[in-house]
Amino acid sequence: MNMVQTLRRMARLMVGVPDYDDYVRHMTAHHPERPIMDRRAFFRDRQEARYGGKNGGRCC
């Protein structure tokens, strides 16, 4: 991984955007029986997990 890729990855993680390529590697290695989400579905899933939650993103 070159310096630009490393910095881009770090910046995404700092703002809470996980890396899709890491997700694909993890799913392939540890959960080969499960389908892999495409980038759009992965992004939506991560946004929902971070902001949506059980009550629509509200704390109360």
Automatic annotation (TrEMBL):
This is DUF466 domain-containing protein. It holds the Pfam family Sel_put. It comes from Novosphingobium lindaniclasticum LE124. InterPro entries: Sel_put (IPR007423). It comes from the Bacteria.
